[in-house]
């Protein structure tokens, strides 16, 4: 809280008060160029992204319903998975609906307030995905490397605390970055060559000094990228070492241990692989960069329910019960 007050009272007003009016103007909206300028391709893009969005929302909602309705799934692993599904729905919903509206109306505009809001929630739920994947890796590490102490270590209080801390860090960083964006003034070029308000692209349009924004962005890239990824690597290194020490006679247990980690490893690989593709791209606004962004923001959240359900008997059984109830009601 002290950091927020410092930003607001000490830094933001001074910056706003010292802004020079020359070559600057107040911005009311940005233009999102999106994927295609050709109207012929717009219906195809609309149908494609609408289908992926509906599958994402429906699939993740079914995961949440299955976990909440089945008492056998009231365990730490599925508690974190339900939070991940909620974060995935919200993550996709920050970008795709606005993109669909722009495609349908043949408009590329987004209001200044809408852009800052989209940027804020994109960072919140993107950060939550990162932290939840790390927490889930830790959960698997405790379950496989310390099975006798699992219920003691991963107690409900710790699980709730891990999720609350993840939400707090995500909300805090996003709030600070959004406040720093509000202090910036923009030149006459308000065009963002992307399908959503991407932070780095928006910073390039600013006329005022963006040094603090970039410093914060680099710091949080380490916090949300390097540190969680290192934690995941450490967890799975210990898991692999523990599994390999299991005697060959216990092959069934060894297979089950590998199986419980396979889904999470697939999601981690997809999330970090596409995420690194976006942020290591030399030009995020290029076709290659935007395709990587689609994989990161749309495809990965859509595939997560399939990855977690297809290899999990308990989840399959719970989903069958939920679907059976839905069909019975209808």
TrEMBL record:
Q: Where found in the cell?
A: Cell membrane; Membrane
Q: Which UniProt keywords apply?
A: Cell membrane, G-protein coupled receptor, Membrane, Olfaction, Receptor, Sensory transduction, Transducer, Transmembrane, Transmembrane helix
The source's superkingdom equals: Eukaryota
Annotated Pfam families: 7tm_4 (PF13853)
- The residues that cross the membrane are 44-67, 79-100, 120-138, 158-176, 215-236, 257-280, 286-307
Keyword Iron appears in the UniProt entry: no
The record describes its membrane topology as: Multi-pass membrane protein
The G-protein coupled receptors family 1 profile domain sits at 59-308
Task: Read off the InterPro entries from this record.
Answer: GPCR_Rhodpsn, GPCR_Rhodpsn_7TM, Olfact_rcpt
Under Gene Ontology molecular function, one entry of this record is:
G protein-coupled receptor activity
One Gene Ontology cellular component annotation? plasma membrane
Q: What's its job?
A: Putative odorant or sperm cell receptor.
Q: State the family named in the UniProt similarity comment for this chain.
A: Belongs to the G-protein coupled receptor 1 family.
The name of this protein is Olfactory receptor
Instruction: Say which species the protein is native to.
Output: Canis lupus dingo
């Amino acid at each position: 809280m002290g950091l927020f007050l410092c930003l607001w009272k000490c830094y933001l007003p001074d910056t706003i008060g010292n802004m020079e009016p020359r070559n600057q103007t107040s911005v009311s909206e940005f233009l999102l160029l999106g994927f295609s300028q050709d109207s012929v391709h717009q219906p195809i893009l609309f149908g494609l992204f609408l289908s992926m969005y509906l599958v994402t929302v429906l699939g993740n909602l079914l995961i949440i319903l299955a976990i909440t309705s089945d008492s056998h799934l009231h365990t730490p692993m599925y508690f974190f998975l339900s939070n991940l599904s909620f974060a995935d729905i919200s993550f996709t919903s920050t970008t795709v609906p606005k993109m669909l509206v722009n495609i349908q109306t043949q408009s590329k505009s987004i209001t200044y307030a809408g852009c800052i809001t989209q940027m804020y929630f994109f960072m919140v739920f993107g950060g939550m995905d990162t932290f939840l994947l790390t927490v889930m890796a830790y959960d698997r590490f405790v379950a496989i490397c310390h099975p006798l102490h699992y219920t003691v270590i991963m107690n409900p209080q710790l699980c709730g605390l891990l999720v609350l801390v993840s939400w707090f860090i995500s909300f805090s960083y996003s709030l600070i970055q959004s406040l720093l964006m509000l202090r910036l003034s923009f030149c006459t070029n308000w065009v963002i060559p992307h399908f959503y308000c991407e932070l780095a692209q928006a910073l390039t349009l600013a006329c005022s000094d963006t040094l603090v924004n970039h410093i914060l962005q680099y710091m949080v890239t380490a916090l949300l990228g390097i540190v969680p990824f290192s934690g995941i690597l450490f967890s799975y290194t210990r898991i692999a070492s523990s599994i390999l020490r299991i005697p060959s006679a216990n092959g069934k247990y060894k297979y089950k241990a590998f199986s419980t980690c396979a889904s999470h490893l697939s999601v981690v690989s997809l999330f970090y692989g596409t995420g690194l593709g976006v942020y290591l791209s030399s030009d995020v606004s290029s076709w290659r960069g935007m395709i990587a962004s689609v994989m990161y923001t749309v495809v990965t959240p859509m595939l997560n329910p399939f990855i977690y359900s297809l290899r999990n008997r308990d989840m399959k059984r719970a989903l069958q019960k939920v679907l059976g109830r839905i069909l019975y009601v209808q």
